[in-house]
C-alpha cells in the first residue's frame, strides 16, 4: 500500500529560476544538444529511465524536472545526470523547501570532483553502483561512510528467475583478459 503524500522530485537538469552564475552552462548546453541530435542516450539517462520505469511500476508519484513553484515544502529530491541540478537542490534545501536530497549514482566519478560537491552536508544520501565503488569513495572521503548506499541501477526486476538458464552473457568492458576466467 502506497501512503506517499507528496511526489518524489526527480531532477536531471538545472531548475529554471534559481539564480546563479554558471560558467560551464554554455558548453553543457552544446554537449546536450549534440547528444540529442545524434540520438545518444548515455549511462546517466539510462539510469534515470530505469528509475522512472520502477516508480511507475510501483505506482509512486513523482515529478520530473518541475518548475520551482510546483515543488512542495518538505519533499524529497532525487538528483541524477546534472551537477547543476544538485547545486539547485542544495540551494532549495538551504532555503527550507526540500527536506532530503538523494544523489547519484552517475553525477561524478570521485567524491572530490566538481569542487567536492558530494561532501556538501546538505546531501543526505548518495547512491553508488557497487560495493567496490562504495569502498573506494569511503577511502577517499571517510565522512561519507554513513551516507553511501549501493544501488545497482538498471537491474531488470521483471525477469523470471524461476527458469533455469544454460547460457548467459558477460559484458567485460575493460581490464586485462586474465581477470575474465569462466
Structural summary, described in words:
The longest helix has 15 residues. The radius of gyration is 18 Å and the shape is globular. The protein has 5 helices and 6 strands, in the order βααββαβαβαβ. By secondary structure, it is an alpha/beta fold. Strand 5, helix 5 and strand 6 form a beta-alpha-beta unit.
Hey, roughly how much beta strand do the residues contain?
5-15%
Taking all residues together, what is the mean pLDDT? 81
H and E string: EHHEEHEHEHE
Instruction: Name the overall outline.
Output: globular
Number of helices: 5
The chain-level structural class is: alpha/beta
Counting DSSP E segments of at least 2 residues, the number of strands comes to 6
Order of strands, main sheet, comes to: 2-1-3-4-5-6
Question: Which stretches are low in confidence, meaning pLDDT under 50 for 5 or more residues running?
Answer: none
The major beta sheet can be summarized as: 6 strands, parallel
Roughly what percent helix? 25-40%
Instruction: Specify Rg, calculated over alpha carbons.
Output: 18 Å
Separation, N- and C-terminal Cα atoms: 43 Å
Amino acid at each position: 500500500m502506497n501512503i506517499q503524500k507528496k511526489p518524489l522530485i526527480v531532477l536531471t537538469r538545472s531548475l529554471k529560476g534559481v539564480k546563479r552564475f554558471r560558467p560551464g552552462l554554455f558548453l553543457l548546453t552544446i554537449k546536450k544538444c549534440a547528444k540529442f541530435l545524434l540520438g545518444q542516450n548515455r549511462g546517466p539517462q539510462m539510469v534515470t529511465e530505469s528509475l522512472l520505469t520502477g516508480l511507475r511500476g510501483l505506482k509512486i508519484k513523482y515529478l520530473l524536472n518541475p518548475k520551482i513553484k510546483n515543488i512542495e515544502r518538505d519533499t524529497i529530491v532525487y538528483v541524477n545526470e546534472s551537477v547543476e541540478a544538485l547545486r539547485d537542490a542544495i540551494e532549495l534545501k538551504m532555503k527550507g523547501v526540500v527536506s532530503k536530497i538523494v544523489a547519484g549514482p552517475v553525477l561524478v566519478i570521485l567524491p572530490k570532483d566538481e569542487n567536492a560537491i558530494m561532501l556538501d552536508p546538505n546531501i543526505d544520501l548518495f547512491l553508488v553502483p557497487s560495493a567496490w565503488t562504495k569502498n573506494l569513495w569511503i577511502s577517499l572521503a571517510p565522512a561519507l561512510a554513513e551516507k553511501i548506499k549501493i544501488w545497482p541501477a538498471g537491474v531488470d526486476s521483471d525477469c523470471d528467475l524461476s527458469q533455469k538458464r544454460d547460457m548467459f552473457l558477460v559484458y567485460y568492458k575493460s581490464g586485462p583478459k586474465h581477470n575474465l576466467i569462466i
